[in-house]
Amino acid sequence: MPNTGSSSPELAGKPPVGLPLWLLAELTYRCPLQCPYCSNPLDFARQGEELCTEQWFKVMAEARQMGAAQIGFSGGEPLVRQDLAELIGEARRLGYYTNLITSGIGLTEAKIAAFRKAGLDHIQISFQASDEQVNNLLAGSKKAFAQKLEMAHAVKAHGYPMVLNFVTHRHNIDHIARIIDLCLALEADFVELATCQFYGWAELNRLGLLPTQAQLQRAERITNEYRERLKAQDHPCKLIFVTPDYYEERPKPCMNGWGSLFLTVTPDGTALPCHGARQLPVQFPNVRDHDLQHIWYDSFGFNRYRGFDWMPEPCRSCDEKEKDFGGCRCQAFMLTGDASKADPVCGKSPDHGIILKAREESEHSAVNIEQLTFRNERNSRVIARG
Ligand code: SF4
Ligand code: SF4
Fold this sequence. Notes:
Enzyme class: oxidoreductase
Number of strands: 9
Largest sheet: 9 strands, mixed
Structural class: alpha/beta
Binding site for [4Fe-4S] cluster: 31, 35, 38
InterPro entries: 4Fe4S-binding_SPASM_dom (IPR023885), Aldolase_TIM (IPR013785), Elp3/MiaA/NifB-like_rSAM (IPR006638), MoaA_NifB_PqqE_Fe-S-bd_CS (IPR000385), PQQ_synth_PqqE_bac (IPR011843), PqqE-like (IPR017200), Radical_SAM_PqqE_MftC-like (IPR050377), rSAM (IPR007197)
Strand order of the largest sheet: 7-6-5-4-3-2-1-8-9
EC number: 1.21.98.4
Function: Catalyzes the cross-linking of a glutamate residue and a tyrosine residue in the PqqA protein as part of the biosynthesis of pyrroloquinoline quinone (PQQ).
Bound molecules: iron/sulfur cluster
Oligomer: single chain
Radius of gyration: 21 Å
C-alpha cells in the first residue's frame, strides 16, 4: 500500500500537516469492568450507535491510503465486538501493524487462536492490581484477576510477547514491588507501570486516585532498582514507568501535536485528534458524513489547534512551544474552562496554582476505594442527565 506522504498539503502560512500514522479504533464503549480511572467519556452511555463492520472497513482503508501504519483496537472492551477477528483480518490484509488493547475479560484460548490466524501482531493486557482482592474491587468483578492471569499465560503460550499494563494510583502504587514480581512471574516482556492520567473518570476521581509525591518517588526508586537488577541479569523484561504530569513543571507534548500523528475514531464514528478531545467545545466530524482525507486536512476540529497561531500568551512567545505545543488542550479545558490556555501543568502558566493545590490535596485525601465513582452505565447516565 503506497504511503501518500507527498499529498500532505501545506496550508497557507502553516507548517505542513503530518500523516495520521497511528489509528486508534475505539470499537465500543461497552465493557464488563468498571475501572474508576477509565479514560472513556463520562457520558459514554448516551453516545450514538456503534459503527458496523463495513463502516470500520472503510475507515481502515481510507486511513491506510493516507499513510496510517499502526492500528490499535480498543474501547471500552473491544472483545465484546463479535466481528473483532474479521476487523483484525481486514486490517492485516490492508498492511497495518495490529494491536489489541484489552482487559482480557472475554478472551479465550479459541479467540486468541482466531486472532492469531487473522494476523494480530500484538496483545496488551491490563491489570488493576497485583492483589486479587484489590484488583477485583477496582475492576468491579469478582472473577477479573483469575481470568487475567489465565489469559496472560495463554497469550504467551500462543507465541505473543507478554505486554502488561498496570495503571497505578494511590491505592496500589505502594505495592509496586509486588506488581513487578507478578509481571516477572508471568514472564512479561514489557510492563507499562502507568500512573493514571487525569481524564474522563480519573479526573472525576482525582482526589481519590492521585498519589502523593512521596508515593510516586518511592515507586520510581523501586522500579529503577528492579531495572538495574534485571539489566545485571541480562533479563529480557523491560519496565516502563509513566509519571502523572501533575508532578511535572512542564506539560507533555500532547499527542505529539494536535492533528499531527494520531487519529482516533470513536464507537459512533466521531473522529478526534486525541481520545479525550470529545469533551472540548469543538465541533468534530464524523466518518459517516465525511471521508478521512477531508476530516484530517480540512475539518475545523482537526485544524482548531494545529500549528501555533491559535496560542495566547504565555505560550505564544515561549521558546519551548515547539517542544510541547502548549501541553494538553483537554487538560487546559478541564482545569481552566478554556481549551486555548497553556496547560496548567506548566510552571509558566498563570493557572499552575490549580496543580499545586491538587498536589497539596493529595497529601490529605482520605478517599477509599469504595468511595470512588465507578465507570458504569448507571453512573454515566446520572452524569449525562446532569
Ligand atoms: S479502563 Fe477499565 S472500564 Fe475502562 S474500558 Fe478499560 S477495562 Fe473497561
Ligand atoms: S508557556 Fe506554553 S509553550 Fe511555554 S513551556 Fe509552558 S506550556 Fe509550553
